[in-house]
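Students often ask why inverse folding is considered easier than folding. One informal answer: many sequences map to the same fold, so there is more than one right answer. In these notes we will look at a single instance of the problem. The structure comes first.
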């Protein structure tokens, strides 16, 4: 195959119907990942592919799969299954799939969470050739018997690294086990690092490995800038930047859902039409926001990283990172929402002093330094903006995790260095590290020195009212005075057990005084309480022997539910009828 032929879709071996779909999609020439993946899929090989975001990975597997996929009969399960981590990405794949299916005659169904089960069950009952699904909803439908994957001949796992990072590995294993053993498996990811996709590479057999760009490579069509700011002016500054640079077709990324909602409210007060997209919005709200943004009725989308992966929104002017992402990979995917399909775009990132470490880790991943934004005249950057050396050189990436756990890695490294410094100082005699104070062991009943002075006296045979020359009533631990009823100290008012009450008594069962600060506040039902406060955060517990009440540091059980007409532990529902008045 010549170089000129391979640069066209016709030269890749696609049929006439699929080529008609290529024209309907508006593609002119294949991207690098399409040029390598399509021949491998047509040859029937498993594929393990990684490419930059926005390079046409969706068409790279849909075009060759639908080129050779047979047509299924009615009321039968899918022949091709495409699993993707997010609803937005599933709907985007469905849009491209529907365009191709109109030319090839296949039927496709999409099942995602956030919507009713009924319509999806009806579509699956009528049968389909291609099923696009998110893992959670697919497993639910499999559990109810509405989805049968036993006839799947082609399995596509899209954004595999993101799916594993979201904790979908057990679910993916369950889905794969439901498919037939003899199948073609296509695994597409943003990276082929062992740390990112090593747990699912066993799903492919003798795959064709396709890696267009190394991990963390941003598109060359995107200009990146940093804006060092102070935290207290960050909120007001966003509206100023959008008014100055233009607020038409802009995506603002935040780290949390609550932050996205708060930013949206502030922009609306500034007169900017915007809409939020995050995990707490239902599917209809998310679809409406994307549809209005594509139509132009919404100027700014405020989103979390749920929108960072694979979503193809055309003609995005620029991207603003209101918060630096904790995962360097997410930064690359965020800015990849602009500058797609060969177009040019730019990205601006707000950096506070707390974000410097995350930004340096991102630069280390990309292997390049992001320049400072220069058009700051008239902008209030605050009193303590982040300080970044303009001549800094990106650090080398050493075992940087594929997911956003680099904070924990730095913490472990710092702890290891601290231990090494202490060991070195000890060896040099400069000083020894101060050991932690050992916790005092709990005294056991019958142990030497255990219990109060009265307990010691009882073990030694002395009278409890004459130990070390101290009068009776002064022998007890702090917060436990008045324990011996025979001395007139603490008999119970309501028939309580002698010698177990709070406060002091007069020998006739009447409470005379109490001090709640030391755990001695008089309780009218003190004889029923099995625990005592001693003013030091501990409690007193009956040991069952002659040692009496001792300090206890164990868990505090909650009070049982003793409500009229209910059994203990029955906290909800209506009251039980006892049959008595």
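Output (designed amino acids):
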């Amino acid at each position: 195959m010549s170089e000129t032929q391979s640069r066209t879709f016709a030269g890749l071996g696609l049929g006439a119907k699929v080529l008609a779909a290529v024209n309907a999609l508006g593609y002119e020439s294949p991207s690098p990942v399409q040029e390598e993946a399509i021949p491998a899929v047509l040859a029937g090989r498993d594929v393990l592919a990684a490419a930059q975001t926005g390079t046409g990975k969706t068409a790279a597997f849909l075009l060759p799969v639908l080129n050779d996929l047979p047509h299924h009969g009615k009321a039968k399960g899918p022949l091709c299954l495409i699993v993707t981590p997010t609803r937005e990405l599933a709907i985007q794949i469905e849009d491209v799939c529907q365009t191709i299916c109109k030319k090839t005659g296949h039927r496709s169904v999409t099942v995602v969470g956030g919507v009713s089960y009924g319509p999806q069950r009806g579509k699956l009952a009528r049968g389909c050739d291609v099923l696009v699904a998110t893992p959670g909803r697919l497993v639910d439908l499999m559990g109810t018997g509405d989805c049968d994957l036993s006839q799947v001949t082609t399995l596509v796992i899209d954004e595999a690294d993101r799916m594993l990072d979201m904790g979908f590995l057990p679910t993916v294993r369950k889905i794969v086990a439901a498919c037939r053993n003899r199948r073609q498996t296509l695994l597409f990811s943003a990276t082929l690092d062992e740390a990112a996709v090593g747990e699912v590479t066993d799903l492919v057999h003798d795959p064709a490995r396709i890696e267009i760009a190394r991990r963390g490579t941003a598109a060359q069509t995107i200009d990146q800038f940093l804006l060092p700011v102070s935290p207290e002016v960050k909120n007001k500054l966003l509206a100023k930047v959008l008014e100055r640079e233009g607020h038409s077709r802009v995506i603002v990324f935040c780290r949390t859902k609550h932050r996205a909602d708060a930013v949206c409210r502030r922009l609306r007060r500034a007169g900017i039409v915007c809409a939020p997209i995050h995990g707490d919005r239902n599917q209809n709200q998310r679809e409406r926001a994307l549809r209005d943004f594509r139509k132009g009725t919404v100027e700014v989308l405020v989103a979390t990283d749920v929108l960072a992966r694979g979503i193809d929104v055309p003609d995005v002017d620029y991207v603003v990172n209101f918060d630096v992402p904790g995962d360097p990979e997410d930064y690359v995917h965020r800015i990849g929402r602009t500058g797609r399909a060969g177009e040019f775009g730019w990205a601006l990132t707000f950096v506070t002093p707390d974000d410097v470490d995350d930004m340096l880790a991102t630069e280390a991943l990309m292997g390049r330094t992001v320049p400072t934004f220069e058009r700051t005249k008239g902008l209030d950057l605050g009193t303590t903006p982040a300080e970044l050396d303009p001549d800094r050189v990106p650090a080398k990436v050493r075992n940087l995790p594929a997911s956003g756990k680099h904070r924990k890695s730095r913490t472990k490294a710092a702890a290891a260095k601290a231990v090494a410094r202490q060991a070195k100082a000890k060896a040099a005699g400069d000083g020894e590290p101060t050991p932690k104070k050992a916790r005092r062991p709990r005294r056991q009943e019958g142990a030497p020195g255990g219990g109060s002075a009265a307990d010691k006296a009882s073990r030694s045979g002395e009278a409890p009212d004459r130990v070390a020359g101290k009068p009776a009533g002064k022998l007890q631990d702090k917060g436990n005075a008045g324990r011996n009823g025979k001395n007139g100290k603490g008999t119970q008012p309501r028939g309580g057990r002698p010698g177990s009450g709070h406060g002091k008594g007069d020998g006739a069962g009447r409470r005379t005084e109490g001090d709640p600060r030391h755990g001695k506040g008089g309780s009218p039902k003190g004889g029923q309480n099995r625990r005592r406060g001693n003013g030091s955060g501990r409690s007193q517990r009956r040991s069952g022997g002659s040692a009496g009440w001792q300090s206890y540091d164990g868990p505090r059980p909650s009070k049982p539910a003793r409500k009229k007409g209910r059994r203990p532990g029955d906290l909800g529902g209506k009251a039980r009828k006892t049959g008595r008045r």
